[in-house]
Amino acid sequence: MQTNAYMPILMVFISLVCIAMVIEHYVRNRDRNEDQSWRDKSPLMFRLVRPIVNLFTNKVTESVDQHKLALLKDRLNSAGMNYAIRPEEFIVTKRVFLALGLTLFMYIYFMLELTSSGVITGVAIIIPLGYFYPDIWLRDQIKIRQHNFSKMFPFFLDLLVLSMRAGLNFASALDHSVEKMPAGPVKDEFTRVLRDTRTGLSRREALMNMADRVQMAAVANFVSAINQAEESGGEVGEVLSVQANQRRTERFLRAEKLANQAPVKMLGPLIGLLFPITFIIIMFPIFIKARDSGTMDFFFK
């Protein structure tokens, strides 16, 4: 490609940078008086397109079905992003990524002058990938958060049991256990439970809201057992002890299951990578000796 051919690319890049700077300046001046202190740190994906997203958020709020926004809000809650991204902002982010994918496809198609149908088809995948990438990212965040929650939840229940055996009631034991927990989804969720109860919400409703956010069977069982014990006048400490033992057993069974699956998962890399190299190392000296001795002259005629 000649030097002059790089000029359109450079001009497009400079134009995009200038447009982004103008939009960011406009949005910053428009939202200067809005309080953003409630937000958690947003992911990099969202921060890159926030200036553009803020321009269209209000229009999406008016046009999108409220039921769809509620479902998306539940997913953001499950991913721990409810204070980082609003549902309408997430929808606009998907559309912005779709536009970026379409722009990238058009740029590659026209600027690079593609002719192969296979290459064009491969590049065209960028368009739907740009639209569905935020959904894929959100699904992965939910899985990671649930995995981290399941790892720390048995330890939290053990802290609760020890605190109640030390003489604290359930509310004080919950507060004490949350304070001693390391940073993570378990601490974040139960901190929110404490905050909800302090603002007037009943403990039953706060725990049920947490179960709806986390969407894990272990948490749902825990909440049901606690609420049932409080309603029936049962011993909460005994219920917590049973829950802690059950969660610990589930964690051990899950670890044992993963350990049993490890040999099966290792079989593919062994067959595809290790065995061929081993055969080459073993057979290469045999091949050299057979060639030097004349045994393989028949094959080379």
Write the layout of secondary structure elements.
Elements: H1 6-30, H2 44-63, H3 66-78, H4 87-111, H5 117-124, H6 126-165, H7 170-180, H8 185-198, H9 203-214, H10 217-232, H11 236-293
Helix pairs in contact: 1-2, 2-4, 4-6, 6-7, 6-11, 7-8, 8-9, 9-10, 10-11
Describe the structure.
By secondary structure, the protein is mainly alpha-helical. It has two domains: 3-26 and 38-124, no CATH class; 146-252, Receptor-associated Protein, CATH 1.20.81. It has helices at 6-30, 44-63, 66-78, 87-111, 117-124, 126-165, 170-180, 185-198, 203-214, 217-232, 236-293.
Key terms for this structure?
11 helices; Receptor-associated Protein; mainly alpha; 301 residues; 80% helix
Strand element count:
0
Distance between the termini: 47 Å
Q: What is the N-to-C order of secondary-structure elements (H for helix, E for strand)?
A: HHHHHHHHHHH
Please work out how many helical segments DSSP would assign. Answer: 11
Helix content: over 70%
Number of domains: 2
Summarize the biggest pleated sheet: none
Low-pLDDT runs of 5+ residues are none
Gyration radius (Cα, Å) is 29 Å
* Overall spatial form: flat
- Determine the structural class based on helices, strands and strand pairing: mainly alpha
Overall average residue pLDDT = 78
Q: How large is the share of residues in beta strands?
A: under 5%
